[in-house]
Amino acid sequence: MGEQQHVKFPQEVIDEYASLGVDLPALFSAGHLGTRMGVQIVEASADRVVGTMPVEGNTQPYGLLHGGASAVLAETLGSVGSMLHGGSSKIAVGVDLNCTHHRGARSGLVTGVATPVHRGRSTATYEIVISDEEGRRVCTARLTCLLRDVHTGDEAHVRGAGA
């Protein structure tokens, strides 16, 4: 769980953010909460974001994956997709998250795959499917993010994401 994986970004995204001095792995990460939960983003583009999370350490009292943990994974992946869709001039802010839990998971890793449902100028909506290691659907989520323009001060916060 402590092993850091490297996110695969499209080259044009790497170039765009590098020209701004932005640390992509820090910016497109799960943040402090995701780090505590063991979330790893392994692939990221506006068309598809993939991430994993261990079940262990993220369970409710019955020993099943906590629904809130699934929500954290889903919102992380959908937000990353939305940020990549919006580009460096936009900030993605989640405004609606819906999660349907289909089955429990007691061990191993769950994998989330976020794909776009809608990508507009001011909003982006992603469907996130979370599956267990046997490929069985654990949760289906939908996240809508507002895409707002970067303002003065936002840029410093974005650039300092890894600090």
Question: Summarize this, please?
Answer:
With 163 residues, the chain is an alpha+beta fold. The chain is 28% helix and 36% strand. The radius of gyration is 15 Å and the shape is globular.
Keyphrases for this structure?
28% helix, single chain, 36% strand, disordered C terminus, 163 residues, 6-stranded antiparallel beta sheet
Explain this structure.
Helix content is 28%, strand content 36%. With 163 residues, it is of the alpha+beta class. 30% of the residues are buried.
What is the element string, with H for helices and E for strands? HHHEEHEEEEH
**Amino- and carboxy-terminal Cα gap:** 22 Å
Average pLDDT value? Answer: 86
Q: Bin the strand percentage.
A: 35-45%
Secondary-structure blueprint:
Blueprint: H1 11-18, H2 24-27, H3 31-37, E1 40-45, E2 48-54, H4 67-86, E3 90-101, E4 109-119, E5 123-131, E6 137-149, H5 154-159
Antiparallel strand pairs: 1-2, 2-4, 3-6, 4-5, 5-6
